[in-house]
Amino acid sequence: MALLTILLQQTGTPQGSPWGSILMMVALVAIFYFFMIRPQTKKQKEIRKFRDSLSVGDKVITAGGIYGKIKEIKGEDVILEIADNVRIRVAKSSIYGTAADSNQQQAQ
């Protein structure tokens, strides 16, 4: 037991410069920022810009998969016509993309 205690005391962590660990932490934060946080904020800005540019007559698809044509925009709500004389009200935030975009993706 005494021999084990002596070996453990001798194999302690070396006392190096604290700047090495600080530099590693800064590098780790920079990697997370440039590879995860920054691309996500860019994508959110693009989505916000798309939703702000919606106009009456656009053909869109909702997050639930409903295709429709915008008939009216009331603040954060959108009235979609999904069939002849069939209209539904959805939140602007649930609009996923334009129907033209989804048709192009299916063709590829």
TrEMBL record:
**Its membrane topology:** Single-pass membrane protein
Q: What is its main location?
A: membrane
Tell me yes or no: is Nucleotide-binding among this UniProt entry's keywords. no
Any stretches that span the bilayer, and where are they?
20-37
The keyword Transmembrane is assigned to this record = yes
Q: Superkingdom, according to UniProt?
A: Bacteria
Subcellular location(s) per record? Cell membrane
| Gene Ontology CC entries for this record | plasma membrane
Q: Which NCBIfam families match?
A: yajC
**Protein name per Swiss-Prot or TrEMBL:** Sec translocon accessory complex subunit YajC
Instruction: Tell me the organism.
Output: Coprobacter secundus subsp. similis
